[in-house]
Design a protein that fits this description.
Blueprint (H helix, E strand, L loop, with lengths): L2 H13 L4 E2 L23 H4 L9 E9 L16 E10 L4 H13 L14 E6 L3 H11 L6 E4 L1 H4 E3 L4 E12 L17 E17 L5 E17 H8 L12 H11 L7 H22 L8 H19 L7 H12 L5 H4 L1 H35 L4 E2 L1 H11 L3 H10 L3 E2 L1 H22 L26 H5 L3
Parallel strand pairs: 1-2, 4-5, 10-11
Antiparallel strand pairs: 2-3, 3-9, 4-7, 6-7, 7-8, 8-9
Helix pairs in contact: 3-4, 7-8, 7-10, 8-9, 8-10, 8-12, 9-12, 10-12, 12-13, 13-15
The structure holds adenosine-5'-triphosphate (ATP) and magnesium ion (3 copies).
Length: 477
């Protein structure tokens, strides 16, 4: 089942059940405090918060998303893309828990011949919030799920809130069991790589008040209008339905992976580290294509910096695959061809998109050459002094001023029989992170997932918690 087919089954299913089909919004949201659209619900926040009356009682979409939080997972897990598409169905004070659960079960288990996704009932597990007996009853009654395939989780995992006063409520997630070849028995609680999370149902049911942490807050009462927000990972369903091993091998992504493999002259599946690099390339090239298609250009801050990281990590990964010449023209073209059926603008706008990407690659390749020269000098000076390791401040200078990644410094130093003073390097890095943190605070720049909920802030006195993420953001390249 091709990704496009799953997408249209989704829209047909919910469209024919009274949901207004809403096109994907841009990856770049209107809200300047929000880095990217991270979930299907983002464009609907004004309606979900009640700030603006919803123009329809039900909606459905396939939303383009970017999650920078997942960049480090990419290629290593089977299921995290930087860019991905989230299928969503939404109810604004219309149907609630029973409706959401019934629809989800029906779409998942209806046979392919009858327009469904054709999952076998025995392969599906669900998680619920531990006190949500109502959801458990519905899962048993509507889906006939046995107790053994319903797992209860605490607030940390199965409770949604914006991190501030406003709407909140329990979630219920649906998982697909890939079977014993993929890990330990025991449901999602035991193994999240055998049991793949495919769909999250959020029941916006309560009004929460102040709190002291993600799990400690008061509930003020039931919301007068309860909402449904769900998100299913389109690529996750695609990889499970296509019988491939992970989301980098689906029809929309695999052609880039194959091109990387051909350029490197290395076979996919032959070596674990190489495989991870090919998957990273496949993901990052596609993510960069989609970001540039939505108007992002490489720069040193904010959205442009994320794009720059994706492009540079691609160059770096190709280099580790043994290719140190420009590859973006080949890779980006492969991604365009795989994505243009779903997003024709990546083809019509390709001249503009590709110019930005090629220029960034050229400039980073020059950086790598310049950095290598500086590093070579430092290596021979270090050796002359008879020191076993390269000074931390040299590594830091290369990273900070030349954008030269630390792993590359380590690799080149090692080739010359030298270590790198990591302790000194790390302490310079953490001093820099502190400065960046202070800066971001000053700029009121929020880039965690929680910043998504800024429009909810109008609902009450709010505390902003968007800074924790900066460290992760600046740790690579
Ligand atoms: P995970 O625990 O696997 O990281 P999540 O709980 O963070 O997923 P949700 O926020 O619940 O994900 O998003 C709804 C759905 O979107 C998930 O059930 C999953 O199918 C999909 N999804 C989330 N993150 C990604 C990603 N990085 N790549 C592909 N699909 C994703
Ligand atoms: Mg996640
Ligand atoms: Mg999860
Ligand atoms: Mg989830």
């Amino acid at each position: 089942m091709q990704t496009a087919d799953i997408r249209s089954r989704w829209l047909d299913f919910f469209g024919s059940r009274g949901h207004t089909v809403v096109p994907s919004a841009s990856l770049v949201s209107d809200d300047p405090s929000l880095l990217f659209t991270v979930a299907g619900m983002v464009p609907f926040i004004p309606y979900l918060s009640g700030l603006v009356p919803a123009p329809y009682p039900r909606a459905t979409s396939v939303q383009k998303c970017i999650r920078t939080l997942d960049i480090e997972e990419v290629g290593k897990t089977t299921r995290h893309g930087t860019f991905f598409q989230m299928n969503g169905n939404f109810s604004f004070g219309d149907y609630f828990k029973e409706g959401a659960i019934s629809y989800a079960w029906e779409l998942l288990t209806t046979s392919e011949a009858d327009g469904g996704l054709g999952f076998a009932e025995r392969d599906l597990w669900v998680t619920v919030y531990e006190d949500d007996d109502e959801a458990i009853d519905i899962w048993k009654r509507v889906a006939g799920l046995p107790d053994a395939r319903i797992q209860r989780f605490g607030k940390e995992d199965n409770y949604w809130s914006t991190g501030q006063p406003g709407p909140a409520g329990p979630c219920s997630e649906i998982y697909f069991d890939r079977g014993p070849a993929y890990g330990a028995e025991g449901g999602p609680a035991a193994d999240e790589s055998r049991y793949i999370e495919i769909w999250n149902l959020v029941f916006m049911q309560y009004l929460r008040g102040e709190g002291t942490s993600k799990t400690e807050f008061e509930i003020l009462g039931e919301l007068p209008k309860k909402n449904i927000d769900t998100g299913m990972g389109l690529e996750r369903v695609a990889f499970l339905k296509q019988g491939v091993e992970n989301l980098y091998e689906i029809d929309q992504v695999r052609p880039v992976l194959d091109r990387a493999s051909a350029l490197a002259g290395r076979r996919y599946g032959a070596d674990h580290d190489d495989d991870v690099r090919m998957r990273v390339v496949a993901d990052h090239v596609r993510s960069a294509l989609m970001l540039m298609s939505d108007g992002v250009t490489p720069s040193n801050e904010g959205r442009g910096y994320i794009l720059r990281r994706l492009l540079r990590r691609t160059v770096r990964s190709m280099r580790l695959l043994g290719v140190d010449t420009a590859t973006m023209p080949e890779l980006l073209t492969a991604s365009r061809d795989a994505m243009k059926a779903a997003y024709p603008e990546v083809a019509t706008d390709f001249d503009r998109i590709s110019r930005g990407a090629y220029a960034e690659e050229e400039s980073f390749l020059r950086t790598l050459t310049a950095g290598t020269t500086i590093l070579d000098t430092a290596v021979s000076e270090t050796k002359q002094k008879g020191s076993p390791s390269l000074a931390g401040d040299t590594a830091f200078l290369l990273h900070d001023t030349y954008g030269f990644p630390i792993d590359l410094t380590l690799e080149i130093a090692e080739e010359s029989g030298l270590a790198v003073d990591r302790v000194a390097f790390e302490s310079l890095m953490s001093a820099q992170k502190q400065r960046a943190k202070a800066d971001a605070k000053a700029k009121k720049l929020g880039i965690t997932d929680l910043s998504v909920y800024s429009p909810f802030r109008a609902l009450g006195e709010t505390v902003f918690r968007g800074y924790d993420e900066l460290e992760a953001e600046s740790s690579v390249l």
